[in-house]
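agent> Task received from the user: take the single chain below, predict its 3D structure, and emit structure tokens. No templates, no multimer pairing.
agent> Plan: (1) validate residues, (2) run structure prediction, (3) serialize to tokens, (4) report one or two observations.
agent> Step 1 OK, no nonstandard residues flagged.
tool_call: predict_structure(input=
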Amino acid sequence: MRDYARQLRESADLSRIYTSIAQSQEHWERLLALRTEDLVRSVYDGLLDREPDDHALRVYSAQLRENKSIAKLLAAIARSQEHRNRLFAGRAEEMIQAAYTGLLNREPDEEALRTYSKQLRESESLAVVLANIAHSREHWHNMLGQRADELVRGACEALLERLPDEQAMRGYAVHLRDTRDLPRFLSTIAQSQEHWTMLLDLRAEELVRSAYHALLKTEPDAQALQLYCAQLRNSRSVPQLLATLADSPEHWRATLASRAAELVDAAYQGLLARAPDEQALGHYSAQLAEHKDLAGLLANLSESQEHWAQLLALRSEDLVRCVYRALLNREPDEEALRSYAEHVRQDRSLTRLLSAVADSDEHWRILMAARAEELVRTAHQELSGTEPEENMVRSCAAQLRETRDLRPLLSSVARSPEHRDAILAINAESVVRAVHRGTHNREPDDQTLARHLTKFTASRDLSALVADIASSPEQRAPNSKGHAWPHPSASYEKPTLVFLHIQKTAGTSVQNMLREAFAPEKIYREYVDTLHLHSPAELSAYSVFAGHFNYDSLAFIPRRKISAITFVREPRKRLTSLYNFWRAHEPTHRSYSGGVVLANQLSMREFFLTPEIEDRGVWNHMTWAIMGERCWRHWRNTLRTAAEDAQPEAEFLARTVRPAIRQRLREFLFVGIQEDFARSAQLLFKAINRRPPTVRADHSLRNLMTGDPHFKKNLRRQSVTAEVEAAVSRLVVLDDIVYGEAKALYAERLSGAREQVEQPRGRDRARNPAAGRHSLKRRSQR
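)
tool_result: status=success, residues=782
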């Protein structure tokens, strides 16, 4: 008050005093307090072009009275979304122009100005509009041009861990400004050898682990990890690393295991031109996964009959041509080619083709011309045991080429004294035996045979042999009594032992053991079933018979009671053993005929499928020996007609065959099992009450192939396929029953023998091999 009074006295200007008071803070605050609502309405009207609502009026008026700041009121309303919306709507085009100028360095075209202005008014979001412009390719290109140096520097630091040199900096920057292609620029650096080298160094362990996981399905051990990382860093070659792992045995085994089914399918498609059935796929896949033997799988399929049949069908004409070229030295004519090729496709076998061509007159003439000298030498060597002179060889060979007739050559050699001597030497034992049987009506004992054989082999004098045997004491004694053989009735009640020798059941060993247990002169041994060719008087001289007899032949032995023994073997193994035994024969063997020839000509499969073998000691041969030929033939005819008969085969086997076989086996004194030969031999000699000799293993194929010149030195054993197994099973329907019943009987008697050992011993049985309860009584028909 004093200040204003003093100023008024000094200036005498009342308006100035009023102005000063009006501009004072106190006056302003009083004014704000009095005019707050008016001020709020004025700000709303100026900034938002409307009256404030009651709530806004009360809030903003209270704030204005409290803080006495109109600036804060203006700021609050200016920051509101409503004011911004009005501002964007009113300044949309101006803001778009500012955005284009700031971001793209140019004015917007009319269409862009309209579009973005409309977008700004509608969205009322400047951020969205700015983002659209900033994300445009034009803005990106501008930035690439402006930031080229910085981008080049950043890329080199990130990918190469170094700053670019000046030249590279300029080059990459210029290129980036020109092309505005950042991906291509980064790809160039990322694909550089420098970047690859850095990656290999940094990621070596990771790469090795990944390669192991992908190829070997396992983690590398520490040593392998260190080794392969070092190799990778030195070589800088990932392909080399992958190739090393891919070539490893572990990867091969892993591949076989994981791809087993696929490999089996591929093998079937490639070799058999079909997909494998489910069972074969499972079987071969499991084998391949377990054993990892792909070669074995391929070998099995390639050696299969199906693959061979396919090859024959596919290559039939080529095979015919090859056979003609090889055997006839010429191409086949068209008709022969078509005909033989069709035979090969139908038969799925080369047998008919080879037989037809090899047996042709043309091939024989070619062979004789090509082998004339060899034929002459062989004829002389084999028939006379001498080596012909060269002049004779040339002369006879020339005649043979001209005439193509072997008969004159063979006739000339066969009539020679050398041939006669050779024949006598080869058949010396047979000749001595024949002369001895003719003179004494029996086989010579071993000592007599050896003595006469030594003399005859040295002299080759047949008349001297006859005279020597005829003048022996054993010939003079019967003659002096006036008879050669005793009457069969004299020995009709004597005990007799008969061994039915079934092929490939260790029968030769049994025969040799019997020779050790009985006097040789009391043993009748024969390879073939020829008892019917001897008189009852002659047979009455023996008490032990051993040979390949069948049960019916026992009727020719003049005895009341006969104790029969035999050995059996698992039928399928017996037949495959027989096939290998026959196949091992050389053509020079005296038994090289019949089934032996077929075994050498045919594969195991072909052999067991050919009908010819059924009458050659193969079809149910154990049944033939034990039941006799008459019963065997009857049963065979019944089984052949089983399909037409109302009685099924299974019923016939169960009701007729099995009971008859069981009864017959129980009539035998002893039936041994080849698979348990040592114990069977002990039980046999206990049954015949003889001291058991040392168990033998004679006539084994291995020993024969080693020591007998008439057996092959090497023999490739053929595998028994499922097809062979089925073919063999067809041939042993009756023998399966024989073997099963024999094993049951053997087990029963083996158990009884153990019980006898445990019981106190009584008096020993008489030394009579036929005294047991298992003697075969003479049947009425005998």
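agent> Step 4: summary for the user.
Residues 475-483, 760-773 have pLDDT under 50 and may be disordered.
agent> Done.
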